[in-house]
Amino acid sequence: MKNLFPEAKLAIGPAIQDGFYYDFDIEKTFIPEDIISIEKEMKEIIKKNSPFIRKEMPRAEAVGMFESTGEKYKVELLREIPDETVAVYEEDGFVDLCRGPHLASTGRIGAFKLLSIAGAYWRGDEKNKMLQRIYGTSFNNSKDLKKYLDFLEEIKKRDHRRLGKELDLFSISDEIGSGLVLWHPAGALIRQSIEDFWRKEHFKAGYQILYTPHIAKLELWKRSGHLDFYSENMYSPMEIDGTDYEIKPMNCPFHISVYKSSLRSYRNLPVRYAELGTVYRYERSGVLHGLLRVRGFTQDDAHIFCREDQIEEEILKVLDFTLFVLKTFGFEQYDIYLSTKPEKYVGSDENWESSTDALKNALEKKGLSFVIDPGEGVFYGPKIDIKVKDSLGRSWQCSTIQVDFNNPERFDITYRGSDDRERRPIMIHRALMGSLERFFGILIEHYAGAFPLWLAPVQLSVLTIAERHAVYAEKLASELRNRGIRSELDADNEKIGNKIRKSTVRKVPYSVIIGDKEVSDARMFVRKRNGENSGPYNSEELISFLEEEINSRR
Ligand code: ZN
After folding, report:
1. Is the pLDDT of residue 164 over 90?
2. What is the C-alpha separation between 460 and 457, in angstroms, rounded?
3. Could you tell me the distance, in angstroms and rounded to a whole number, from the CA of residue 430 to the centre of ligand 1?
4. 3-state secondary structure of 404
5. Does 59 participate in catalysis according to the annotation?
6. Longest dimension (CA), the chain
7. Is the pLDDT of residue 554 over 90?
8. E-strand stretches of 102-193
9. Do 418 and 480 sit in the same domain of this protein?
């Protein structure tokens, strides 16, 4: 950079996961062509194989040196280093501040690539000057570099924002507002399949489904502690009939209120309430990201009210349920974290200890390996977080299971014990998918938009060869729809090759082609998205073929 742009001031340039970056203060705005010439210069430097020489010097001397070369950012950094002695590295007359270690010489650098240019505020503070950041990566050899670049390409191809547009699944628009999602018909159909599955399985697992309002009195959020602990994520209150109301950031207080609406005895517990509850949370505009970070979203939320002696068993059930749901979506690898008591907490140490043990025991009984995240629990109790690995091996935080002995106290909820005395239940908060929006974003990337049959918005397209086949094809498509199979007719006046291509681009799992023979035999082959054929089937056989795959959720 200094060879090509001597006027550039150097800020910081650390190694990061998968690569490195460097921030520069320079008048000129970098363009992609600059990247090419910078890479060329880098190759020259590598070819020279000049050594990196470490020099240690008193800090004051280093300050003087960088002041004389006008590197004001280095001077600022140096002023904050408490050590009396600092290290710099010199390479062919170029000196940079660095703790080290370095490679012995430039020739040791393997394959590298500069990846992108971005704006970045000095020290990440928007009050500071905007610098230009160049990202890059480096590997031992070009084979490993290529593998990584292919991986980046694959990530780009699977970007849910791109696929969301191509497949017309959802949109987020300026007209509506940042971080607010519109589910388009195809995306909404996928969501419906997820929700239907979710409701059915919750019913089987002994949950009761609730619906609760989107707003509630501010007073409620005071009582729940959200105003004290969570206000930076909440929107401004609104006034209704002289009373302040607040849009909900969480569903918990509503479920507590339902629990409270009748008397409970030890025999009634556990009570399991679940809701696809839509909440709104303030996120800074800079962190919003497609479906992954939004301002309004629907949690697959549940609250279990149980006796202390039931915690472990309930956690075991929740774990089974969670892993089953995740597996259904093709996530079979997880990283599990157990977060323990944070610095600021409520509740007795005894409660913390027993509930942390309950979580730990449940994980051990299931034979699940986990990592302890010390001090990362919520203020009201310990929790288990599950991160799933997608088809590219990337980790995503989805499920969370939290024990809570604070809210039962705050809202004074009780049950009548076997000794006829009032006791406090324990509350378990849990979300399996996290939020439907975020989970959908993850699924789009995980499946690269090619959803399995049970989720696909259109499951089968019926394609006609000529106009005379349209009547039969229409009848078939509507018969399939009547049997709950999402079929769509393409009887446009187009070549069959085009119709197949359109169906493939939309990633429709199956198609059938209707021509003279299919009409006269009333039998047809079904063509899979990957080009495989099976059949011929009559319409009844076709329906069972599809139903079997739909029901298996493969
Ligand atoms: Zn909750």
Report:
1. yes
2. 9
3. 7
4. strand
5. no
6. 93
7. no
8. 111-121, 130-139, 170-171, 182-183
9. no
Query: Catalytic site residue 144?
Result: no
Residues 237 and 221: their CA atoms lie apart, in Å, by: 11
DSSP codes, 229-284: HSGGGSPPPEEETTEEEEE-S-SHHHHHHHHHTS--BGGG--EEEEEEEEEE----
Cβ neighbours for 224, distance < 8 A, ≥ 6 positions apart: 250, 252, 253, 407, 410, 411
Q: Which two tokens stand for residue 140?
A: 């031992």
3-class secondary structure, 141: coil
Residues 97 and 171 reside in one and the same domain: no
228 part of a folded domain = no
In this prediction, residue 232 has a pLDDT band, given cuts at 50, 70 and 90, of confident
CB atoms within 10 A of CB 476: 23
Q: Are residues 268 and 390 in the same domain?
A: yes
For 482-517, letters b (16+ CB in 10 Å) and e give eeebbbbbbbeeeeeeebbebbbebbbbbbbbbbee
Asked whether residue 151 falls in the same domain as residue 172, the answer is no
Q: Which of 415, 447, 479 is the last residue of a domain?
A: 447
User: 251-303, pLDDT tens digit by residue?
Assistant: 999 999 999 999 999 999 999 999 999 999 999 888 899 999 999 999 999 99
Output the CA 354–ligand 1 centroid distance in Å.
20
Residues 495 and 432 in one domain: no
Coil, helix or strand for 94? strand
Would the pTM count as exceeding 0.70? yes
For the question of residue 299 being annotated catalytic, the response is yes
Say how many Å lie between the CA of residue 343 and the centre of ligand 1: 21
The reply to whether 150 and 177 lie within a common domain is no
Query: Does 244 reside within a domain?
Result: no
Q: Which domain holds residue 518?
A: 460-552
Does 348 share its domain with 382? Answer: yes
Tokens read off for 440: 């959908």
Neighbours of 45 (CB within 10 A): 16
Write the pLDDT tens digit of every residue in 200-212.
Answer: 999 999 999 999 9
Write out the two tokens for 243: 């009373």
Question: In angstroms, rounded to a whole number, what is the distance separating the alpha carbons of residues 77 and 143?
Answer: 37
Share of the chain residues as helix, strand and coil, in percent rounded to the nearest 5: 40, 30, 35
pLDDT of residue 392 exceeding 90, the answer is: no
What's the gap in Å between 316 CA and the centre of ligand 1? Answer: 18
Distances (CA, A) of 293 to 11, 73, 121, 198: 30, 33, 22, 22
